[in-house]
Amino acid sequence: MEDCIFCKIAAHEIPSTVVYEDDQVIAFDDLNPQAPVHALVIPKEHYANICDGVPGETLAAMAHAVDEVVRAKGLTGGFRVITNTGADAGQTVMHFHMHVLGGCDLGEDLI
Ligand code: 5GP
Ligand code: ZN
After folding, report:
1. pTM of the predicted model, to two decimals?
2. Could you give the ipTM of this predicted complex?
3. What burial class does residue 101 get, using C-beta atoms within 10 Å of its C-beta: 0-12 exposed, 13-18 middle, 19+ buried?
4. Counting atoms of ligand 1 from 1, which one is nearest the CA of 99?
5. Which end of the chain, N or C, is more open, meaning fewer C-beta atoms within 10 Å of its C-beta?
6. Which domains occur in the chain, in start order?
7. Which of 65, 59, 7 is nearest to 40 (CA)?
């Protein structure tokens, strides 16, 4: 999709620090990390959010990418996966993404 920053990252038109990549998904470090480890997992195809008709195969590829991030970053103590969806959740980039957060005690403020 034109003017979508994450489509441009997926196409390597905008640089990012890639943690994992395959033909369907890419995982990269968040520009503004909220934890010692903060990566984003996105499908290379553009979907606005998790409810935008994302194929099961793509969701499975994203779950695999989360596992790859966890291994690459050594998150043996645990981690949190978040997907902000819509205005109430504060979604700012309208390309489906999963945050993978870890590397510290993440607290219990939200779920
Ligand atoms: P949201 O608030 O939509 O769930 O999260 C969007 C995330 O994308 C934010 O954590 C933000 O820091 C990250 N982000 C926005 N633009 C860029 C970018 O150009 N590169 C990278 N690596 N992360 C970005
Ligand atoms: Zn996009």
Report:
1. 0.97
2. 0.99
3. buried
4. 4
5. C
6. 5-102 (3.30.428.10)
7. 65
Amino acid in position 42? I
* DSSP bridge partners of 99: 40, 82
Q: Whose CA is nearest to atom 20 of ligand 1?
A: 31
Length of the chain: 111
Structure tokens at 18: 């890639």
Q: CA-CA-CA-CA torsion for 5, 54, 64, 66, nearest 10 degrees?
A: 50
pLDDT tens digits for range 30-64: 999 999 999 999 999 999 999 999 999 999 999 99
Q: Encoding tokens for residue 97? A: 């993404």
Give the containing element (helix H, strand E) for 90.
Answer: none
Query: Which ligand minimizes its atom distance to the CA of 18?
Result: 1
Of 12, 38, 64, 97, which is the active-site residue? Answer: 97
- Give the per-residue pLDDT at 111: 66
Cβ-proximal residues to 59 (8 Å cutoff; 6+ apart), any chain: none
99 catalytic per annotation:
no
